């Protein structure tokens, strides 16, 4: 079933990257995507089992320890260190991400699909994204706002399944961890981009209103139909992959000149294990890979029954 194909199976089958994803300059080809710190790229020893690696996974693991603000820079300020497990993508994986689409099959799927299309059209017009070419300012305004909302579905779904597990006094079959992991990952996208630009007070007020509306709508929708909600998020992430792919293309074609040599924020280097000379383009590649992963995970979860075992649960 197309909806249950995972990102990792696609990556394994992919042999070449899309032409638009080739690095723009010869000097960029000399940079390493990942940090050379083996601790940030290594997997836990128990994940090296071939049978375990062959099973569906949501994320593999980085090995950072919780900082508790013990790490400081030369000025004595706290240095952020990733306290959670997250996917550390390989360069081959981020370059092999493709724009895909799951065709709606029934009324529920179609309702989710057209809801996303209507939301995207409205937001593109409201944010000015539909008018003129992409640039750094327009892109940041769009993704910062969207990431403040994108972290809601996983948190709402995870919380509701958590409460359901408590009420019924039984295990959740592995869904909660994956859903909360998704919410945390989307929050990290936001923290990365606000390191590049801080939003205005008016912008923050709009975020407050959007969160209040979307949180409650998604909460009641998930109570009624988790299947619809996961399909909705699957289609939402399809659009996110398109957005980041368009940004990468715009950067490569000179529409975002200030980002051509702009270094990646330190938080991004730590979170995705990027090299010390990583650029904003590497950040876009990593974020897009995350979004493609969420796309495939949610389409898969939408095809499962509520009490089925989550194939992405940590083994």
Task: Please supply descriptive tags for the structure shown above.
mainly alpha; 315 residues; globular
For the report, how would you describe the main beta sheet? none
Q: Helicity level, as a percent range?
A: 40-55%
- Summing up helix and strand content along with how strands pair, one would put the structural category as mainly alpha
Strand content: under 5%
Using the alpha-carbon principal axes, give the shape. globular
Q: How large is the radius of gyration?
A: 19 Å
Order of secondary-structure elements: HHHHHHHHHHHH
Number of helices: 12
Q: Compute the separation of the termini in Å.
A: 23 Å
How many strand segments? 0
Low-confidence stretches: 1-26, 42-48, 52-61, 65-69
Question: How would you concisely characterize the structure shown here?
Answer:
The protein is mainly alpha-helical and 315 residues long.
What do these coordinates show?
The protein has twelve helices and no strands. By secondary structure, the protein is mainly alpha-helical. The chain starts with 6 loop residues before the first helix and ends in a 13-residue tail after the last helix. It has helices at 7-13, 38-41, 50-54, 91-95, 107-126, 136-150, 152-168, 175-193, 201-224, 226-252, 266-272, 280-302.
């Amino acid at each position: 079933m197309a909806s249950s194909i995972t990102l990792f199976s696609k990556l394994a089958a992919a042999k070449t990257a899309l032409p638009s994803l080739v690095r723009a300059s010869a000097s960029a080809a000399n940079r390493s995507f990942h940090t050379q710190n083996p601790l940030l790229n290594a997997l836990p020893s128990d994940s090296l089992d071939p049978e375990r690696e062959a099973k569906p996974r949501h994320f593999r693991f980085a090995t950072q320890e919780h900082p508790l603000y013990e790490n400081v820079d030369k000025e004595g300020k706290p240095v952020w260190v990733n306290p959670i497990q997250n996917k550390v993508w390989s360069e081959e994986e981020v370059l092999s991400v493709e724009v895909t689409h799951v065709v709606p099959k029934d009324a529920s799927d179609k309702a989710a699909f057209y809801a996303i299309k209507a939301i995207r059209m409205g937001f593109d017009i409201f944010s000015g994204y539909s008018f003129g070419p992409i640039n750094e300012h327009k892109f940041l305004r769009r993704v910062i706002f969207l990431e403040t909302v994108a972290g809601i579905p996983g948190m709402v779904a995870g919380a509701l399944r958590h409460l359901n597990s408590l009420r019924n006094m039984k295990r959740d079959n592995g869904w909660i961890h994956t859903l909360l992991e998704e919410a945390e990952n989307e929050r990290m996208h936001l923290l990365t981009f606000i390191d590049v630009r801080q939003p205005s007070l008016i912008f923050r007020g709009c975020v407050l209103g959007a969160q209040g509306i979307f949180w409650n709508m998604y909460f009641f929708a998930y109570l009624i139909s988790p299947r619809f909600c996961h399909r909705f998020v699957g289609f939402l992430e399809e659009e996110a992959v398109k957005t980041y792919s368009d940004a990468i293309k715009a950067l490569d074609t000179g529409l975002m000149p200030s980002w051509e040599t702009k270094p990646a924020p330190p938080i991004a280097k730590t979170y995705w294990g990027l090299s010390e000379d990583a650029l904003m383009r590497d950040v876009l590649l990593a974020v897009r890979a995350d979004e493609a992963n969420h796309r495939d995970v949610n389409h898969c979860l939408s095809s499962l029954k509520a009490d089925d075992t989550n194939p992405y649960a940590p083994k």
